[in-house]
């Protein structure tokens, strides 16, 4: 006779990305507690009436915005300031990209020594961590109101973004072509020009256009803190409660931003 | 008879001319912009000196002020968390509408695309200006601004994920007799779950950065203090606030990067 042994029943559990199920639930609970704390922090003391009233004000706001202002004088001012924003983005892209080139090579692990690498990486993370408006507000206090402060702020932001992405491309280059240029007896500079540069030019152009597109967006709002461009006009109209003019300005900004995005997409498709 | 020697060239004449024209055009536009803005190289020379001057004024950072900025920093983190949460909830239907393969009809597809475009083409700070009028100054307006801006981002990217799902799994679930909602829940959602988690965390990290500036227009967070400090030329206070912002942003970036590698 065969004794029937009771097999312990085991059910299949879906494996988890966390170490085990206890860790998983621990993280879920912690996350839920954090979110609840945040919700309480934002919503404590906010009654439902504030929402409903707010929506009411929203309707009133839309009514005062419509129809957008279209008087010739106002539109000329609007166009003028939009042009200023676009010009700021152009100059800031040129300056930012120029500064980015040495930083990008410095941040490529395969080409430089350790200290230079760390220094370049530090520049990149600081530039990326601080929002453009924070740089702008400080630049405005240092250089006064106007496009110069805006250009400095946008160039500063460009360096972090551009160097980071370009350095990744520099790190990915084919070392074989560098070696083959070197083996012809080329100097270090010649190796750079004929071995490294041709490999990154297409990406370089694509990234420049991409960043230009982002800079157009940035230059449209940076005037909110007084750093030149259309944002300054927006802030003036806003603080005077001229919401019909605000509407025209916003439409102008959206138009330019969408146009820039389109141009950037077309150029990038052609280059890559 | 002479042998014609041919030199190898990478580009033919036409593409070389095009490249040259492109570069020249870019250069002209930049120079024209420079002229239009009436810039002077000397201004930039002065910039280095001004920054050096600023740096000496900022040193040493006003450490005694540190306890005062803890509460607004926590508020900044709250704004980012709640804003992301709200955006996450709102973006799922928006993604559904803007995914070509799932959206019920042409009209809903257009609606989804409009929501995504409008949300994305207006900067957070401009949304904040609008919501400050509607809901009054404070963290609530900032949170809503963050949420509204993030809906477009998440809706767009999740919609693109949805367009790339495997239709076979969807079919398999619906062939068991599942209704439309259950098909979405068991046939579609599991396919985009890693993307949902990853993108939400990524957006949260962007939102922490975005929440630091909302205070410039009165929408709560650390930006209010920064604005006041800059406005009164209290540079040592500015230094400690900027350092605190750097700390929080780099920390959240680290958390986000780690969590995203886990989620994939």
Topology:
The complex is a heterodimer of chains A (272) and B (264).
Chain A: H1 21-43, H2 48-65, H3 72-106, H4 114-129, H5 132-143, H6 147-171, H7 175-182, H8 188-221, H9 230-239, H10 243-271
Chain B: H1 13-36, H2 41-58, H3 70-98, H4 106-121, H5 124-135, H6 139-163, H7 167-175, H8 180-211, H9 223-231, H10 235-263
Helix pairs in contact in B: 3-4, 3-6, 3-8, 4-6, 5-6, 6-8, 7-8, 8-10, 9-10
Membrane topology (chain B): Multi-pass membrane protein
Subcellular location (chain B): Cell membrane
Pfam families (chain B): BPD_transp_1
Concise account of the structure shown:
The complex is a heterodimer of chains A (272) and B (264). With 272 residues, chain A is mostly helical.
Describe the structure in your own words:
Chain A: Pfam families: BPD_transp_1. Chain A has 272 residues and is mainly alpha-helical. Chain A contains ten helices and no strands. The longest helix of chain A has 35 residues, at 72-106. Chain A is flat. The termini of chain A are far apart. Chain B is mainly α. Chain B has two domains: 13-58, no CATH class; 63-263, MetI-like fold, CATH 1.10.3720. Chain B is 77% helix and 0% strand. Chain B contains ten helices and no strands. The longest helix of chain B is centred in the last third of the chain and has 32 residues, at 180-211. The model of chain B has no long low-confidence stretch (mean pLDDT 89). Chains A and B meet through helix 1, helix 2, helix 3, helix 4 and helix 5 of A and helix 1, helix 2, helix 3, helix 5 and helix 6 of B.
What is the highest CATH level, the class of the largest domain in chain A? Mainly Alpha
In CATH, what is the homologous superfamily of the largest domain in chain A?
Answer: MetI-like
What is the helix tally of chain B?
10
Which architecture of the largest domain in chain A per CATH? Orthogonal Bundle
Percentage of residues in helical conformation of chain A: over 70%
Runs of chain A with pLDDT <50, length 5+?
none
Count of domains of chain A: 2
CATH architecture of the largest domain in chain B: Orthogonal Bundle
Taking Cα atoms only, what radius of gyration of chain B do you get, to the nearest Å? Answer: 26 Å
CATH class of the largest domain in chain B: Mainly Alpha
* Order of SSEs of chain B: HHHHHHHHHH
Tell me about the biggest sheet of chain A?
A: none
Give the mean pLDDT of chain A: 89
């Amino acid at each position: 006779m065969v004794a029937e042994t009771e097999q312990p029943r085991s059910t299949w559990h879906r494996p988890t990305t966390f170490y085990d199920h206890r860790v998983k639930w621990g993280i879920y609970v912690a996350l839920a507690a954090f979110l609840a704390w945040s919700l309480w922090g934002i919503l404590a003391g906010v009654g439902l009436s504030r929402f409903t009233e707010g929506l009411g004000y929203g309707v009133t706001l839309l009514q005062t915005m419509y129809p957008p202002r279209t008087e010739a004088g106002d539109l000329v001012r609007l166009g003028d300031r939009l042009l200023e924003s676009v010009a700021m983005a152009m100059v800031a892209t040129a300056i930012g990209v120029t500064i980015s080139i040495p930083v990008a090579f410095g941040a490529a692990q395969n080409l430089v020594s350790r200290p230079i690498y760390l220094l370049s990486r530090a520049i990149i993370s600081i530039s990326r961590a601080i929002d453009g408006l924070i740089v702008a507000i400080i630049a405005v206090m240092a250089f006064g109101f106007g496009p110069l402060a805006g250009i400095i702020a946008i160039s500063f932001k460009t360096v972090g973004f551009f160097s980071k992405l370009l350095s990744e491309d520099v790190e990915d280059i084919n070392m074989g072509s560098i070696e083959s240029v070197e083996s012809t007896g080329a100097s270090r500079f010649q190796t750079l020009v004929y071995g490294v540069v041709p490999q990154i030019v297409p990406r370089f152009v694509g990234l420049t256009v991409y960043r230009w597109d982002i800079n157009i967006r940035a230059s449209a709002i940076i005037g909110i803190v007084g750093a030149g461009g259309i944002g300054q006009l927006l802030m003036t109209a806003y603080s005077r409660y001229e919401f019909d003019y605000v509407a025209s300005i916003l439409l102008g900004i959206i138009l330019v931003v969408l146009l820039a995005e389109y141009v950037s997409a077309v150029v990038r498709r052609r280059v890559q | 008879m002479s042998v014609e020697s041919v030199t190898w060239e990478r580009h033919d004449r036409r593409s070389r001319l095009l490249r040259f024209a492109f570069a020249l055009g870019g250069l002209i536009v930049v120079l024209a912009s420079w002229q239009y803005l009436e810039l002077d190289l000397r201004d930039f020379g002065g910039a280095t000196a001004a920054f050096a001057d600023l740096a000496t004024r900022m040193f040493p950072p006003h450490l005694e002020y540190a306890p005062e900025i803890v509460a607004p920093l926590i508020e900044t983190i709250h704004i980012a968390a709640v804003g992301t949460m709200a955006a996450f909830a709102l973006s799922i239907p928006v993604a559904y509408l803007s995914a070509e393969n799932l959206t019920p009809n042409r009209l809903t597809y257009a609606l989804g695309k409009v929501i995504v475009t409008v949300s994305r083409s207006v900067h957070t700070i401009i949304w904040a200006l609008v919501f400050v009028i509607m809901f009054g100054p404070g963290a609530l307006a900032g949170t809503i601004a963050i949420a509204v801006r993030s809906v477009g981002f998440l809706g767009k990217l999740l919609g693109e994920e949805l367009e790339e799902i495997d239709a076979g799994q969807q079919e398999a679930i619906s062939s068991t007799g599942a209704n439309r909602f259950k098909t979405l829940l068991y046939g579609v959602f599991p396919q985009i779950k890693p993307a949902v988690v990853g993108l939400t965390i990524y957006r949260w990290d962007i939102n922490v950065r975005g929440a630091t500036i909302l205070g410039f227009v009165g929408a709560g967070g650390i930006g209010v203090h920064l604005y006041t400090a800059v406005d009164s030329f209290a540079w040592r206070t500015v230094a400690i606030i900027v350092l605190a912002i750097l700390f929080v942003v780099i920390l959240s970036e680290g958390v986000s990067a780690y969590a995203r590698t886990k989620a994939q």
